[in-house]
Design brief:
It contains 14 helices and 5 strands. By secondary structure, it is an alpha/beta fold.
């Protein structure tokens, strides 16, 4: 496993700059990353340096539509995935449907409303903190039914490893991963490291994701003000979101009890199942 400080330094590479293969391949083929042929940005949350989550239970990744036979074998066999949670929109799913996996349950729950198109003007100031705060607060709100299903799985099926993905595996999936890290009692450093690791995990498809972001924001070009703040991942933006959750809901745990309807006993069981072998 790579040193946490070295991982963070590489993960803080601006997205306008290339991370070379010589830099990223040794990272992506070692924990916490898992090489799954045909997808990207795949990692075991329990192997992130400093994470209190148990290894081999919670995985995250980018889209699965291009999985090879070898990639399928890794998910079905080596990792023993029993359930996949897909956080994408209907349009994303229609363009690139998940493949069927042997012995794996696929769960998709439509969000309460479509994701808003990011307003690049909200990302111009500073490092884009205000835009990220608003964008992630929307994510945590509109995907409540998905969060509920994932937390129920953790509570009720602790022997069944699962994987959560969206398209890039960084924003919607990152919000869920951060919620789980916070719930398990991870340090701020561990939470932010996992969040930032998606910068390295998406490097093999960086140019494709840049084009995806241009289309998704209707940006005139990569140079439009706010665009590079939107497509970068920065600790300050995650912290702005966490501050927003605290002010809006009283924190992640209160969000889970008050908005998702879990009891204190549920929370305790979920925490135990996340952290205890």
């Amino acid at each position: 496993m790579a040193d946490a400080a070295a991982l963070r330094q590489l993960a803080e590479t601006d997205v306008s700059q290339e991370i070379t293969k010589e830099q990223y391949i040794p990272v992506l083929t070692n924990p916490p990353f898992v090489f799954v042929d045909g997808t990207f940005n795949t990692r075991d949350l329990g192997l992130v340096p400093g994470s209190p989550l148990r290894a081999g239970f919670v995985y995250r990744s980018g889209a699965l539509a291009q999985l090879t036979d070898n990639g399928r074998a890794v998910l079905e066999g080596k990792l023993g995935i029993k359930r996949v949670f897909d956080l994408r929109s209907p349009e994303e799913r229609n363009r690139a449907p998940d493949p069927a996996l042997v012995g794996v349950e696929h769960t998709w729950i439509q969000s309460s409303r479509p994701d808003s198109t990011p307003d690049l003007d909200r990302f111009i100031a500073g490092e884009g903190e205000q835009g990220y705060r608003e964008m992630y607060l929307e994510v945590i709100d509109v995907y409540q039914e998905s969060w509920k299903a994932i937390l129920e799985h953790i509570r009720d099926r602790p022997a069944d490893p699962f994987l959560v993905h969206c398209t890039a595996g960084r924003d919607r999936t990152g919000v869920l991963a951060g919620l789980l890290h916070h719930l398990a009692g991870a340090s701020e450093e561990a939470v932010i490291l996992d969040y930032l690791l998606s910068r390295i995990g998406t490097e093999p498809v960086r140019l494709m994701l840049l084009d995806f972001a241009v289309a998704g924001t209707h940006a005139k070009s990569h140079e439009q003000p706010g665009f590079y703040n939107l497509i970068n991942l920065r600790a300050s933006c995650w912290n702005a979101f966490v501050d927003g959750v605290r002010k809006e809901y009283g924190g992640f745990e209160q969000f889970i009890t008050d908005k998702l309807g879990f009891s204190k006993d549920d929370l305790a069981k979920i925490r135990t199942n996340l952290t205890s072998p």
